[in-house]
Amino acid sequence: MVWKWSEDVRALIRTSLAAILLSVATLPADKILAVDFDSKQAFATYCTGCHGAEEQKGERRFDQLRFPIVDNDTLVETQDAIDQLVLGDMPPDDSDQPDENTRQKLIEYLRTQTEQYHQSQTTTGGETVLRRLNRREYLNTVRDLFQLNTQMFDPSRNFPQDDLIDHFDNVGNRLATTGFLLEQHLIAADQVIEKAFAPETKPVIQHWHFKAPFIQQQELEYAHREAFDSKYLCVHETNNSENHWGEYAPILKFRDGAPHHGRYEIQVLVEGQNRDHPHPSHQVDIDKDEPMLMGIIPGNPNLGKLSDPQPFETRLAVIEVPDGKPQWFTRTIWLDQGFSPRFTYLNGPSNARNLQSRIGLKMLKEQGRKMERFGEHYVQALKEGKLPHLRIHEIKIKGPIYDAWPPPSRQTILGEQAFTRDRIEEIVTRFMAKAYRRDVAPAEVDQMLSVARRSEAAGRTAYESLKDTLTAVLCAPGFLYLDEKPDAPNSTKLSDVALANRLSYFLWSSMPDDALVVAASEGSIRAPKRLRSEVDRMLQDPKASEFYAGFCDSWLGLRELGGMPPDRNEFSPYYSKDLRPLMLQETRLFLRHLVEENLSLLNCLDSDFTFVNRTLGRFYGMPDMKGYTFRKVTLHNKHRGGLLGHASVLTVTANGIETSPVTRGVWVLENLFGTPPSPPPDNVEPLDPDTRGTKTIREQLAKHRNVPACNECHRRIDPPGFALESYDPIGRWRTHYAKNQKIDASGQFVNGDKFEDIVELKQLLLAREDQFTRTEIEKLLVYGTGRQIEATDRPEIDRLVSEAKKNEYRFRDTLQSVIESSIFQSR
């Protein structure tokens, strides 16, 4: 452990970090091109009536614009005007309209002004701020650096939540390093090194055999002993229930768990009972046509009750269990030291406690019996209630099993040779280069070797001092911060090594592998053919799942899914079917498919396919869907096509109780078209809740639309939001509200375009293909560079949009173009 020298390490790291932070250069001031030109006439005719001295709709004022552009504020205002003119949203349909020739001339003039301003700039204000690894990147990096299994290990679990900006968790200027975080880095580093070196000697394979009598969780023990004579270990409900009444079946005789990290062979003799039960479906919420699924999930008594949910809920295995006849199944799973397997009924009912109570009491009453001891009704329900559950008869465990020894984590550090004291410098130097993801200077190595010297001077062995030193490396800025160095002094272009790092953290949220390091060291990574080859290879790697998860969470705001949990009574399928991970899986697989097959990114706006498994498919009204595995399906209901039909998007844009056209409309403007509305005025009163349910949300919003200060934004926000009212707070299709009020999903955009429903809305959105493509490219660049888009990025983004259009908006080609862009390859 590190505590004997932790004060020395803290002092060392704080000093190093301060030096690096102080070395960050300040950004040079803008240079201004002074040219005199007046464009008052064009704006006076078509713009300043709504955006002038007397009225500033949308907090925009164009009568004071002067050209040429001399500052970023004017640049932003001008680009906003261009966007509105291109979309046809301005001038509004009730104002004087320029003819098409005049509109195009005005657009071209404004674009010329923005381009001249861009050319005049020499600022490096578009650089990425020194960027710390966020929590996701930290965990993935230590996983790959040491080849660790992290299913039950997350050293970043106690780190503060990363600050978000527009849902992104990797923007450099929001990733602050606090004193508390530094302390957590020390603790986490110690945990990582201890795990990487353990166990010191190869453990002997052990065998365990568990059979009757079994011990259930305390609340169920009496009923199971009386009903089954403790012959079975039973699971009664899904592991997403409210009461935790038999949702996990831990092996309480194995509560101390695995003695060592490693793979363990699990054999289980199990049967399903009463899948075809006699109870009404509204009481027992399972699908009788679906096979009973048993999951194996890790548990650790140090993290809470083994019968309750815990921080690590990884599904280590999923087994289809047959009805009525015990059958042996064998699975090999990874277990960290102290963890044991817990069995779950993945697609079981969500309310076993209430079911057993209600049915047991009913049976006692029918038999004319009174409950003489509390719990007798549960006994009766288990004996004769014919409720679905899983029965485990025997369990055998064997392990730990290793494919190689020493394990990969130790080989990564020590190599093939045995450790000796005279190898410390060689080991530390090699490890630092890999951990820092770049070459290291002799002075940096000596700084870390001083930790080893101080550690030995304090009485620790050479082996312990090595571990202390490696722990210090994981706390150093070289590890915790991404290398974004330029290729030459006074250049903003990333070095080859820095480009390899940026590419790796873009597509994998982790460190470069050996192939990327070689490409960077050879100086060939920037060559178009080599770069495309590396991107193709990386997207085929399983680690690319981090891109689809991280980018979807950031772009679409899906990280907040479940943050406002749906009401359990009104929206019980969200829990009984454990829909949250299924919703996320659909969206991630959809995006992956677009990239892998190089399909048009416009499929995000509308498509004739999606990805579902049996559970999600039936939730969507696809009764013929079968199987636990997700697969691509053709959509016959056009309202499910594209992201706006995904339950993930529809749930994250609701508040768990009701829907709001405003929330969903703002989401469309922000995330699909990059045109977020202005914040509401301070003096606007919120909508009064209609507790009686006599008014639709459209009728309630009419009050706001009649207020001039509100109408300007609501006429943009509300139309797409109205179309999305056809989906309830968890994404189910509906035609009426709860009070049987018919939903009016029609709307009209500012430019006069009308639609009757979500299907027609999506056709109108497809007509804005360039604006959507621009937003998608900007989101990719934010995620890839770790900085927000600035006005000076506009010309390069314009070029990328034009290139995407030439390539028919193919997603993989667009992604490649983004990676090859000057924005991505610059600081």
Automatic annotation (TrEMBL):
Where in this chain does the record put each Cytochrome c domain?
A: 40-110
Pfam families recorded for this chain? Cytochrome_CBB3 (PF13442), PSCyt3 (PF07627), PSD2 (PF07624), PSD3 (PF07626), PSD4 (PF07631), PSD5 (PF07637)
Carries keyword rRNA-binding? Answer: no
Q: Which residues form the DUF1592 domain?
A: 494-622
List residues of the DUF1588 domain: 640-736
Q: Where is the DUF1587 domain?
A: 131-197
Is Cell membrane among this UniProt entry's keywords?
no
Sequence ranges assigned to domain DUF1585 in this UniProt record:
751-824
Name all DUF1595 domain ranges.
Answer: 425-484
What's a Gene Ontology MF term here?
metal ion binding
List UniProt keywords, sorted A-Z: Heme, Iron, Metal-binding
The protein in question is named Planctomycete cytochrome C
